[in-house]
Amino acid sequence: MKLFECQACGQLLGFENTECGRCGRLLGFLPASTTLSALEPDGAPVWRPLARPQERYRFCANDQHRVCNWLVPADSAEAFCPACRLNHTVPNLDRPEHIRAWQQLEWGKHRLVYGLLRLGLPLSTKADQPAVGLAFDFLAPWDAPEAEAITTGHARGLITMNIAEADPAERERFRANFNEPYRTVLGHFRHEVGHYYWERLVADTPAMEGFRQEFGDERRDYPAALQRHYQQGPLEGWEEYYISAYASAHPWEDWAETWAHYLHMVATLETAYAYRLTLTPPGAPAAVLAMHVDFDPYTVRDFDAMVRVWFPLVHAGNSLNRSMGQPDLYPFVLTERSLAKLRWVHNLIARYRGA
What we know:
Structural class: alpha+beta
Number of strands: 13
Distance between the termini: 26 Å
Largest sheet: 4 strands, mixed
Radius of gyration: 21 Å
């Protein structure tokens, strides 16, 4: 994520901030330029962002629920911002706990959409393009019939999220039950949207042959593969070939896990770039841990440049977390095979943007 600052007073700002803590100005996010801006009133409900003072905006309709700080052009017929227009179903807002859970989900989803916008990926709603659009259902298990289980997943552009994932205690229970080293709301979004982009960028395209060479033949029986994974565990020796145990279940899951990790990588490296992070350890460690993030990972073409700074960065991050008694920041090992798959995703996105 970029670093943002208030255009009125220079205060450091966070992506989810709605008000400057120093000067008190309202803040709004401009999706077209991926910029957080201080606002100048221009007759309710219209505002002029100091980042683009010649333009006029209003807040997304979901601002009333305090789940969105994004802006919509004042003359637009749309009530919602590009991120909130992707919503197909939101939880019952008559229950305060639903609003709190939805807020956590939206923070994760807005960070997801920010990354997709920065990567220049195709992003349309199902309302606009039913066949290829993206949509989200946020469902509450305690509102569903007893026989109906709500499973987070993807089906033809519709991503379902169980809002129980917004509860840290529930999420930790799920993580332990599935023996996962990492489970977050944002991680779910990045994984599930990977399935969507497989359909948009790979399926029925010239990329299919390369996909099968890297990830395997997706025509394998998918339900049977998942059943085998949950009953027997990951493939023996999965650590050498896959980025996670779950990735070994089926080529589609290998792709989605790799896609999610690529989004983890570019987002984390962008933050490191925003801070111009440099590591200069003394002595022998300098040979492998010295690094300087001096490029924007969303625009760099050289994947190896990303890899060269990624390993020292996560080593330092893991060490810092352990010093605080926290789990590793990045509890994964990237082998040559995993890196080859990440490189394939990187090159696929670069080719799409070039086209």
